[in-house]
What does this fold into?
Amino acid sequence: MPNFTRREFTTSMMNSVLAYGLIDALWTQNLFAAEVKPVIDQWFKDLYAVGEDLHGQKLKDVDFQAKMEDLFRKVDLPELMKFIDLSGIKERVDIPANGAYSASFDLSKVEGLPKELNFGRQIFCLKKDRAIVPHGHSNMCTGFIVLEGAFHGKHYDKLETAEDHYIIKPTIDDQFAVGGVSTISDHKDNVHWFRCTSETGFIFNAHFDGYASDITIPTGRLYLDPEGEKLAGGLIKAPKMTSETCHAKYG
Ligand SMILES: [Fe+2]
It folds into this structure.
């Protein structure tokens, strides 16, 4: 046993008491709250906060897109899956024979998150060889995180909009495993198309709509056929499609 003098012993005890007292004080003041609350609560709040910057015109869509992608890559995936109750979704959802099922999840229990959210969200559920069919968006930033399964994902820049077609340019053609992330904005990688390559696949999606006052096209999906006429410079003339024709060919 160390041979403490009375003075050393007293000093050592006092240091411990002080340290303990300080920690206790910090704890009661809730200064450790960020660590002790579920990390996923903070993650959704961060997503909301960056969305406020987009809607408040403090961030351009491509800058917002980069921030959203950053946040998506940093997510604690097991915590996210627990939070959205992916196993419950898998039990209750009858995955369709064509296209993707869109499952909802509850965010009302996230402490500190406003009731009026600035983003929409869903979990896409797909069977093998079925797809989130090729489509673009207008006045929307949105992103995917693969929660389970594997996907072949493609993105295109939407360069021009004509009466019956779009001019698009391939930008991403990749395999996406669990944790794989992809995002779109009006000005980068606007068209996406994800085909499930595993028995089943599940994708987290959050989307921020209607942030630009100068874009008047509605935010719904803009279906198109990326297997259109090949043009010079790697561009594609992609005919517009309806949801029905697009799902019949690609769903
Ligand atoms: Fe989309």
About this structure: The chain has two domains: 1-36, 38-250.
